[in-house]
Amino acid sequence: MAEKRIKIAKDKTKLVRDLKAADDTTGPFQTFVDIMVFAAALGAKRKKRVPLVEFAKDLDPIRRDYFDNHKCDLVINLLAISETQDQKILAQDEESDEQRITIFEEYANGGLEILQDELRGAVEYSEQILLMMTSERLRQDEPEDDFDLSRFLS
């Protein structure tokens, strides 16, 4: 079986590089794996799955075993089973593995698209991502009923 790699969309290359911490940057993530897992989780949370049209040429695809080494293969499997509602997607064959990778790549691409929009104009990505996460948590704490005005009563 050929070595599997997780691809990044060409139009997200700059963002992915900016999100990674390096000597000359203050990106909030230590590895490209961390960025892709966060983006995929964000894409799944917001139900945004975007197919990759063009792949980055100047940023190598990330080897699949890096995800396994970081214990992130569970996220790939959970997204796949959640999306397909079929446990057969977890089969250890070429076709199932390709499907899992495609689902993960598309959710990551959707999450990166969300991040691109949310981080537009931001100077400090770490702060902005923290604000996004706080806002998301507060949104979850709000009651589902849109007409519940009791919070305005004192």
Topology:
Elements lengths: L4 E2 L6 H7 L1 E2 L2 E2 L5 H14 L16 E2 H6 L3 H12 L9 H26 L5 H17 L13
Antiparallel strand pairs: 1-4, 2-3
Could you explain the architecture of this structure?
With about 150 residues, this protein is mostly helical. The protein has one domain. The chain is about 55% helix and about 5% strand. Strand 2 and strand 3 form a beta hairpin. Helix 2 crosses helix 5 and helix 4 crosses helix 5. The chain is globular and about 45 Å long. It starts with a strand and ends in a 13-residue tail after the last helix.
CA-CA gap between termini: 65 Å
Count the beta strands.
4
Range of helix content: 40-55%
Overall pLDDT level: 87
Could you give the order of strands across the largest sheet? 1-4
Our count of domains comes out at: 1
Task: Work out the strand percent.
Answer: 5-15%
- Largest sheet descriptor: 2 strands, antiparallel
Structural classification: mainly alpha
- How many helix segments? 6
pLDDT under 50 segments (min length 5)? none
| Morphology call | globular
Q: List SSEs in N-to-C order.
A: EHEEHEHHHH
Instruction: Give me the Rg, rounded.
Output: 17 Å
